Amino acid sequence: MIWQYIPMKYGLHNAIIYIAKGGGIMSYNKNLYINYIIVVLIFVLVASFIISTVNAETNTYKNYNSEISSTELFQPNANFTSFNDVKGHWAEKYMNELSYMEILNGFVDKTMKPDRVITRSEFITMVVRVMDLKDNGRKYSNYTDIPENHWAYSYINKAKGYGLLDYFNGKYFYPNKIITREEMAIIISKALPQNFQVDKQVSFSDIKSDYANKKSIDKAASAGIINGKPDGSFSPQGSSSRAEAAAMIYRFINLEADEQESVILNFAKGYETNIIKSANEKSSTLTGVIEKSIGKEKNVNNERKKVVLELKKLNLSRLLGQVHVNIIQNSLYKVVAEISYELTVERGVSKKTVYTITKILYMTYRDGSLKVYDSSLNYSVVSQEGSNKKINLTWDYIYKKTPDMTGVQKIDGLDVVSPTWFVLQDESINILDKADISYTNWAHDKGYNVWPLFGNGFDKEMTAKVLGNPSKRTKLVNKIIELSLKYNADGINMDFENMRTEDSDEYTLLIKELSEKAKEKGLYVSVDVTPINKHSNWSTCYNRKDLSKYADYIIIMGYDQHWEGSPVSGSVAQLNWVEDSLKKILEEVPADKLILAVPFYTRLWQETYVNGKTVVTSKALSMEEGEKAIKENNAIKVWDEESGQYYAEYKKDGSLYRIWLEDENSIKRKVQLANKYDIAGVASWRKGFEKPEIWNVIDSVLSAASL
Questions:
Q1: Fewest beta carbons less than 10 Å away: which of 8, 49, 215, 691?
Q2: Non-local CB neighbours of 625 within 8 Å, separated by 6+ positions
C-alpha cells in the first residue's frame, strides 16, 4: 500500500488525510494520533529502562566485547567450517559436534549431506575415531577389496584387530555398500564396554526371540544408541542416513562412564593455566595448549597464535586467581568441565580490570589422553580501576640521603615517582643504597607508585663484566628484586647508560631475566634508553625492539640533544628533534609501551673566543634559574618556532651567553606529542627543576587524551 500525505485546508482542521493506492481516502484526528505516538514512545523508553535495570541488578546482562575476549581474556573467535546443508536440520547439533571432534568430516563442497545414506566404511570410520583405537603396526584386515592404499584401510584394520568386524568374516568387506541397521547394532554392541549390562528391556515387532543377532540389537537399543521405528519395528535390513548415524554416534559418545575425576580435574586446570601463561609470556608456541587440542578448539588455538603477535604490541599483564574445576559430564568418550576463576588484567600502570571467568571445556580422547575439542567463555566485570589517562612520571634525584618528605604536598596528576636510590658499584654486585622506606610510605599515601632507579654509574667496563657473566647477572637480578621488595616498591626503573655496543644482547638478556622475576612479584619494569643515534655507543648499546618485548615500558630520554660537552651551543631538546626521535623509536617500540621523558632543565651556554677559537662551555640550570639569568642580564626573550622555545642571548665579560628556555610553553608542546602519537605517557628529569605551574600544564594535556 502506498500512502500520500495531503494537508487539510477545509473542514477537519486537526486531521491528516492519506490516499491509498486504490484511491480511497482515510482520515483520522491529528491530535489523537500524536498523543498515541507519544504514549507509545514513553512506554517503550520506560520499559527499556526497567528491563535494563532489572537485568543489571540481577547480573544477567553481559556486554560481550570481542576485542576484550580476544586480547585480554585470550579467547578469540575462530572460523570453523560451516555446513550450510545442516543449518536448521534436526541433526544439526549432532553433526556439528562430531565435526568439532574430528569424527565426522564434510565433503569438499563444504556440505555434510545429512540425508544421504551412510556406507559401511563411513560408519566404521566414525566408530574407530570415537574409540581412539591405536594402530599397533600389525595387519588384521584380509579383505581383498580393502587394499592398504584405500582411504579407510587404517580404520577398518584397527576395527578388525579390536574385534568390531568379526561378523564380517567373508573375503570381501564391500566398503561402499550401504550399511544396514542390524550391522550398525552389531558393531556398536562390540564397541560397548565389556561390563555393559542390558538393564532396559526392549522389544521390536520384527525381532523375535530366536532372531540371529537379537542380543546385539538388544544391547545397542538398551544403551539408547539405536532406536526403533515409529511403528514399533527395528527394520534390521533398513538403511540409515548420515544424520541418523551421527545421532547414534553422539549417543554412544555420551554413555555414562567412571573415568577418574582427578585426571580430568588436573587436565582442565593445567590446560587453562597454560593458556593464561602463554598470553603473559606472549608465546606463540602455546606449550601445554596446542598439542592438547583438536578440531574446533585447535582452530581457536591457531587464532591465539595470531593474537600473540598483537599482544607483543600491547602492554597487558594478567594475574590468574584460584582456578576451580567442576565436572559437568563424565561420559564414555566425552567430558565436560566448568572452569571458574578471577582474572586481573592490567593495561599499563593506570588501568586494571578484574573479571569473573566461567569457561566450559569440551573434551574427548585422542592418542590415549584427553584433548579439548571445543570451549566457550562467559565473563563479567567485577571491578575496574584507573582510566586511559597517560602515565606521568618524574625522577626524584637523591644526592646522598633520602630527605624527610613530611609536609611535602601531593602533585596533582603525578602517577609515579622514581627516586635515584641504587647504583651498581662493582662486579661483585655491591650496590649503593640510598633508599628509605618512609619515602615509599609518603609516596603511597599521596597515591604515587614508586619505581626506584637502578643505575650503573655510567661505568662501561664494570658493566660489561657483569653482563657477560651469567652468574653475576643472576646475582644482580636477585639483588634488584630483593631491594625493590625491601622498600615496598611498585616497579623498577633501569638506567644503565654508556655501555659497550657489543653488550647490547647481554643487556637485553638481563632485562628479560629481571622482567620474568619482577612479574612474579607484581613489579613493573621500565628501561631508560637514549634517542636512536647510530654513531654513539650511548645509543647503539640498546636493542630497543627486543627490550620492549620484556620490559613493561621503554622511556626515551628526549633531551641532551646538545649535552654538557657539546662543541656547539644549542637547545637541550628542540621540539622537532624530539618529535623526530619519537617517530624513529616508534618503528621499534610499541606506542603503548613508550614513555617520552622531557627536560625540566636548560643549559646556559658560554661562548668565549680564545686564541683564535671559540670555546663552548655550559652549565645546567633549573627553569627558574634560567629566567633569573635572563632578567639579571636584561636579555630579551624571543620565541623560536623551530625549537618550540623562548631563546635569549646576552654578552658579559667578553663572552656570549645563549639560552633556550624550558618553561610551561615548551613543555606543553613536548607533552602534546604524547597525545599526538598516542604513547603511554611522559616522564621528566628532574623533580625540583620545574616551575610549580608545570604540573598543571602536564596534567591538563595528558587528561585531554583520556576524554
A1: 49
A2: none
